[in-house]
Amino acid sequence: MTVLDSRALNRATLARQLLLYRSGLPVADAVAHLCGLQAQEPQEPFVGLWSRLAGFDPAVLSDLLTGRHVVRTHLMRRTVHLVTADDVLAWRSRHDAMLRQRVLGVYRDELKDIDLEELASEARELMADGEPRTAAEIVRELAGPRPGPGPRSLGEMVVAALVPMAQAPPRGLWRTKGGVRNVALSSWLGRPVDPPAPDGTDPVGRALVRRYLAAHGPATTADLRAWSGLAGLPGAVAAVRDELVRFRDERGRELLDLPDAPRPDPDTPAPVRFLPAFDNAILGYQDRGRIIDDQHRGLSVAGERVVLVDGRVSATWRVTEGVVSVEPLRAFSRTDRAAVADEGRGLASFLSDGESDRVRVEPSPC
Description:
- By secondary structure, the protein is of the alpha+beta class.
- Helix content is 42%, strand content 15%.
- A 5-stranded mixed beta sheet has the order 9-10-11-12-13, with helices on one face. A 3-stranded mixed beta sheet has the order 1-7-8.
- α5 (85-111) runs antiparallel to α8 (151-162) and α7 (135-143) packs across α8 (151-162).
- It starts with a strand and ends in a 5-residue tail after the last strand.
């Protein structure tokens, strides 16, 4: 079985994540290809798409949100993702049990005396009018004489798990601030969420395996689980295994992949790329060593924005007083520094609508 070393996996990851070359895909198609984008921080998906798409216009993504073609919702790992309307309707039921268990994992004691089915029924009835509401408003209308749980636990269970929700604009629009107002997905999109598959079948699970590998492969089953948060995918993997090709990584673990997916030559040059907080390219794996060194792994979890140099996390970045400021994590060559500065100027121009291209690359660590 062919062994793929970390550099081969790195280049495959960059290709699948649209980070090796800027893609000409339409914005909605890119969101679908990537299986959604992490979107806890409302403005971060715009940076993620700017780094991936040629000529990205942030107004297009805002229009897709207001036009209800893409939505912000809790999905993979109970984190907020930006996903297409078609995908969230197809995938949401498959995530129901995981979403409940993840909320219970935090608030089990507070919610132990709550009949979740009764709460879900009441919440669906409340949200059936299609009116966007804050979590506080939902809790206020549902709590009534119900004893026990605090507003945070009750709100998170309803909003993130029991009722499929979208976060209504202006939340998530370009350069627009707006609090989270939740609206039932079925009302917002005008279509019901697809029901769970009959017992013994898992078409959504099989689709998720294929879609994940197209955007993240080659990958282990542990990577798939880490990305999705779903424990019950071994059957789906087994069902599509005959469609897949297999490799090994340098530690001997089995890697699965789609046969015709891109696996570039490991010596393919990789351009500098600025990634947003919580980017898919890092968080989409259990083993993130293909793109980030172990000593820097905590940066992505902490929400640091990072810079890829030669395909690996090599710096962090932030915007300070209108200047894109880059702090290297390792020594940069003169060529690296020039490439980082050049890409940083492009990012500064994007973030300022062309009013500034100021970038500062701090000295490399000793």
